[in-house]
Fold:
Amino acid sequence: MEQLKNLRYVFLFLIIIMVLVLVRSFNPNLFRQDPGKAVEVAQNNSNSITLTQLKSLNTQYLVINLGSGGGFDSVRIKNSINIPVENLLDKTNLTIFKESKDEIILYSTDASTTAKAWVILNQLGFKKLFILAPEVNPEAFKYIFQPDTAVRLENDSI
Structure:
């Protein structure tokens, strides 16, 4: 009899664990995309679009300004709305993303903010996400590197 009582506790514990695993696996907020695919897309820059490409785009699109300040003039781009990145995962904003059949283009003056928002929305299962990239590469060097020849090393003799 004593062993049956102990087995009941073990079975109860296992059932609770199974219920928790099932609840966790059917959670709608879990990441749905393979992170390797997201890394591949980011390395190929296939998730970025320039302003000239955006203007020549024949499909419908929705531009999301992720900034909280006035750094973006939404009048110049049609179908643009302002959603601060802090409010990105609010229910009303998520319904905007879910109901949008158009391509979603994310924009912010800070490139890292846009990349973070793209990763979050991509992992939540949203498709047709793009990052509005600047026309010029901000990391391109303006000048060719030329070492200073007037400086001598300490070991050089005079």
Observations:
- The radius of gyration is 26 Å.
- The longest strand covers residues 61-65.
